[in-house]
UniProtKB/TrEMBL annotation:
Keyword annotations of the record: Metal-binding, Transferase, Ubl conjugation pathway, Zinc, Zinc-finger
Zinc is among the record's keywords: yes
Protein name as catalogued: HECT domain-containing protein
Tagged with keyword Mitochondrion: no
Alphabetized GO MF terms: ubiquitin-protein transferase activity; zinc ion binding
Pfam families: HECT, PHD_G2E3
Superkingdom to which the source organism belongs: Eukaryota
SUPFAM superfamilies attached to this UniProt entry: FYVE/PHD zinc finger, Hect, E3 ligase catalytic domain
Annotated GO CC locations: nucleus
PANTHER family xref list: G2_M PHASE-SPECIFIC E3 UBIQUITIN-PROTEIN LIGASE, PHD FINGER PROTEIN
Domain HECT: 558-628
Length: 643
């Protein structure tokens, strides 16, 4: 293993690597493995096989016992002799060779098999059995790890269990394992990964209509279209009755996996939502199928999927689209998250609660993932985080210690800290500390106090322990959940902007805020445009009356009518809301031009899928206001008639 031959000269690999003459040419010989003409100096490499080597211990100081053992060097292949291929090379006899120790607990279960070849080993550290210095759980034969080093090379050689590289390589070199400075053997093979460039190219339709066979693919009707979800199924456009410009197609297995039966995995949902996020603008119905239905799996895991009967509000038929249903679902989801067991405190200012069952079920990570997904996919602002929780998660404002006001009111720990903070004398402070010694001992603050001035420092330490130290694991898992779709990274970049999304997000909606959301689309004809211009003033005046309560409907009713959302989403409305105008159309024109959207009633109409509102064109504001207020009554009547 590992030697090169030319004519009658044979050189073992370690001999080449440790030769002192012309090292660069020698290394090229070892790395390339090619037979080249050797010079006179290079012939000295063979002398390494004839020299005697002595134990490295003999070169130590005279104060130590000298080992005078010498054996004929056989290219560092001596049994029970350990050779460290460093500069200069070092060789150790059996008595003085480096050893490893078992630095683990007594109840540690010793491995019974080699982590490389999986054959059985005797769990005793020796010359033939080595272990990883980092994880202590990876044990292996010396020959196995040496073979792995030759195969992986310096850049890929690491522990097979813990994946440690630096400490592992240093320990293996110390124990006499040679690591060649070259790339891995699998990286040097020609076209080693060529099969990764091959794509699935087979028609899996029940009946293939292509005369050239199922593997034939040419642009047009008989081009093989792969499943856009799994990529492991394909079909000709003609065989599945697809349109000529169809590029997105899903196989029957993937369709069955997203039919709402709840058979989803968390990994599938997170990865798939990342894929379909690009379809937010163009295909809302597709997003409903691929986003909302997988969300139901998370809700089932949170045991909040069964909402109360009074929460199942019936949506009007105009809002029974994918976009409106998704927004309605995300609103209910945000309410359930706010009321879950992982949060405590008053509404609108929640802190994290320490719950052992939630930790066991990893509910904090699920909550963080759901909050991130709600924000990205157009859900309402979170709005219920307390300032203290936001600071613990994102360190904003930076370098600002938490105070007693950040703690959750009316909890046992908060009451104890309040009593300490309210102490007015040193004797009273000592009495309160004596009564709360268990809490102080748990927080590591059970220390003697000599003056009342130490009270503020003690309170600050207790607040930090209650909200940060005690909550380290829940905070960490919540942060990791918020990393979903990159939300946490964006919040860290702009913490001041996202502060209004996580905290105090329930801002009062004003007429000016709602009016700025809409873009006016006037008609091109000047005569029609002149009729539409006054309606803009009617619309703004109507919003002002809704704001001050002089109308039977509110601004939230208007927003819900147009977009299906009760609150403005944290990421804004997409597509941006727009307004067009609804003119009188005679029955003859309706029949002639096949007008389906307009009618003679002149009620405001909307297209929630595109956030588009059609305002009736009237001659007076009184008629405009009456028409706008009647849509709510028509909505209510429609809900009552629905089954």
């Amino acid at each position: 293993r590992g030697f090169w031959v030319r004519m009658s000269l044979s050189l073992h690999f370690p001999s080449c690597s440790n030769a002192t003459s012309q090292p660069q040419k020698t290394h090229e010989l070892a790395r390339n493995g090619s037979a080249t003409h050797l010079s006179t100096n290079q012939l000295n490499l063979a002398c390494l096989c004839k020299k005697k080597i002595s134990c490295w211990r003999s070169q130590m100081t005279a104060a130590l016992k000298v080992c005078l053992r010498q054996q004929l060097c056989r290219c560092f292949g001596l049994k029970s002799w350990q050779n460290t291929l460093t500069s200069p090379p070092q060789s150790y006899c059996q008595d003085h060779s480096p050893t490893q120790s078992l630095c683990v607990d007594s109840d540690f279960s010793l491995p019974q098999s080699c982590s490389i070849c999986l054959d059985s080993i005797e769990p005793v550290l020796s010359y033939s059995v080595l272990k990883c210095p980092s994880c202590h759980g990876s044990w292996f034969h010396r020959d196995c790890v040496q073979h792995q080093a030759h195969s992986a090379g310096l850049f890929f050689f690491r522990c097979t269990l813990c994946n440690n590289k630096e400490n592992f390589q240093q320990e293996m070199v110390r124990m006499g394992i040679y690591i060649p400075e070259r790339d891995a053997s699998w990286e040097l093979e020609a076209n080693a990964y060529s099969e990764l460039l091959e794509v699935y190219n087979h028609c899996d339709s029940v009946i293939c209509l292509c005369n050239e066979g199922r593997t034939y693919s040419k642009k047009g009707w008989f081009e093989v279209i792969r499943c856009c979800l799994c990529g492991s199924r394909g079909t000709h456009r003609k065989c599945s009755d697809l349109k000529l410009n169809t590029t997105d197609w899903a196989c029957i297995d993937c369709i069955n996996a997203t039919d709402g039966k709840g058979q989803f995995s968390v990994i599938y949902v997170c990865l798939h939502l990342h894929v379909v996020s690009s379809a937010l603008v163009n295909d809302r119905t597709f997003l409903l199928q691929q986003c909302v239905l997988p969300f139901l799996f998370f809700i089932r895991q949170l045991s909040v999927s069964r909402f109360k009967d009074e929460q199942h509000l019936t949506l009007p038929s105009a809002h029974r689209t994918g976009d409106a249903t998704r927004k309605y679902f995300l609103d209910l989801l945000m309410q359930q998250i706010q009321n879950s067991v992982v949060f405590e405190g008053p509404s609108g200012s929640k802190n994290l609660a320490l719950d052992s069952q939630a930790l066991r079920e990893d509910l904090y990570f699920d909550i963080g993932s759901l909050l991130a997904l709600c924000l990205v996919h157009g859900g309402p602002p979170i709005g219920f985080f307390s300032h203290g929780l936001y600071q613990c998660l994102f360190n904003y404002p930076a370098n600002c210690p938490l105070s007693l006001n950040h703690m959750t009111p009316e909890t046992h720990f908060t009451q104890l800290v309040h009593r300490i903070a309210a102490a007015e004398s040193l004797d009273e402070l000592k009495e309160v500390m004596k009564a709360s010694w268990e809490f102080l001992e748990l927080a590591g603050c059970n220390r003697p106090v000599t003056s009342l001035d130490e009270r503020e420092t003690l309170v600050e330490d207790l607040v930090s322990f209650t909200m940060i130290t005690r909550m380290q694991l829940p905070l960490q898992r919540l942060r990791e959940g918020l990393h979903t779709l990159g939300v946490f990274d964006q919040v860290q970049l702009f913490p001041s902007i996202f502060f209004g999304v996580f905290c105090d997000a329930r801002e009062v909606m004003t007429a000016e805020t709602l009016d700025r959301l809409f873009t006016m689309n006037f008609s091109e004809q000047q005569e029609t445009r002149n009729l539409e211009t006054p309606i803009v003033s009617f619309w703004r005046h109507f919003l002002l009356e809704c704001e001050v309560g002089r109308s039977s409907i509110s601004l939230h009713d208007v927003l819900h009518f147009v977009t299906g959302a009760d609150e403005l989403p944290a990421v804004g409305l997409c597509p941006p809301p727009s307004i067009s105008f609804l003119h009188h159309v005679r029955l003859e024109e309706q029949m002639e031009n096949a007008v389906e959207w307009w009618d003679d009633g002149l009620f405001p109409q909307c297209k929630p899928a595109t956030n588009h509102l059609l305002l009736p064109v009237t001659s007076t504001y009184k008629a405009f206001k009456s028409s706008m207020e009647q849509f709510k009554a028509a909505q209510y009547q429609e809900n009552m008639t629905l089954p």
